[in-house]
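Hey all, quick one. A colleague (J.T.) asked me to put the magnesium ion job into the tracker so the inputs and the structure tokens live in one place instead of scattered across chat threads. No bug as far as I know, just bookkeeping. Sequence used:
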Amino acid sequence: MTIGVLGGGQLGRMIALAGYTLGQRFVFLDPGAESSAGHVGNLRVGAYDDEERLSELARKSDVVTYEFENVPVGSARFLNELVRVYPPPRALEVSQDRLDEKQFFASMRIPTAGFAAVSSQAELEAAVAKLGLPAVLKTRRFGYDGKGQWILRTQDDVARAWEALGAASLVLEAFVPFERELSILAVRSTRGETRFWPLVENEHRDGILRLSMPKSDAWTPELQARAEAYAANVLAELDYVGVLAIELFLVGDELVANEMAPRVHNSGHWTIEGAETSQFENHVRAILGMPLGSTRTIGACAMINAIGRLPPQGDVLAVEGAHLHAYGKDGAPGRKVGHVTVRAETKRELAEKLEKLLPIVDPQGVAPASMRQAR
Ligand SMILES: Nc1ncnc2c1ncn2[C@@H]1O[C@H](COP(=O)(O)OP(=O)(O)O)[C@@H](O)[C@H]1O
Ligand SMILES: [Mg+2]
């Protein structure tokens, strides 16, 4: 089969790397000629709304998926008339707009932070009065890695944020005083088979994911079951096919949904070495209707993002159990250029390896003790 992929970034690259072992072929569409996936597959360069390019992609592909969630929904629908597109365009539509997404969660009875739509200064004042401070003002569309959002702590912040973001359609969210950030990754195949990976704990800094660690034994089975139930409802409601990620806040023993991604997700990169079947392989299996692989973890593991620059390769690889993934991208401030996964037999051994790797991969980071000690 040939799988067409909208987007040629590192996620597409890793989908292809997993799909090749299953004998599949890949063709990517991305506006950038230097895209990461172009090093490992056939890259067509063109705009996401170029109908000629989209038709070409449909002709070359048996099935189309995406690795970038800001592909125009119209393009996904256009393709869907010509070829099977997974996940369904509706999933893309819901996750592209933070207001629609929150309303969608609410309609499924999945808890979210309090929220209000903001399209004028008066609405912002009213939303602040309703939700209180602190609060987070976000653009409804196109935000990623903490871009397009502003934490409001004082009335002064409210005025300044309006000046900075006021032109866009916005949503104000109550600030969630979370203890931890978690994510649940789920996958559903064309045959309706569904699997979940264990809850992952995520640490962000400056709005960017730095560290992810599955901790299957740190949560009660009830918490895992609740996260799976939320994800299962979303999968069913959208008649979803492929990998889905939901970012969650843990507040006391409450799970509050933050956002979802209708694609493979950075907090699932550890699954390449740390799970029986990676999110990338299961995504390919799911969209091709193959049986899904086990999502069981293999030992203890953690993933550290390489942001801005790649760490010195020799230093990383000298740590037993460490695996370097370089995306073939140029370094730039705040850009994800690779990641390191480290695996160990025991949690204690994992903590020791993380102590060595964190200063090499994320030298500016001061990971809290909770993350360093793999508990
Ligand atoms: N309502 C909120 N309360 C507290 N922290 C938040 C809230 N919304 C976002 N954050 C913090 O900002 C990070 C990025 O926000 P998110 O909505 O996930 O946007 P992005 O699309 O950039 O990932 C979150 O992972 C979390 O650390
Ligand atoms: Mg996020």
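Adding what we noticed when we looked at it: Residues 113, 136, 143-146, 173, 175-176, 181, 204, 207, 247, 258-259 surround adenosine-5'-diphosphate (ligand 1) (CB under 6 Å). The chain has three domains: 2-85, 114-174, 180-372.
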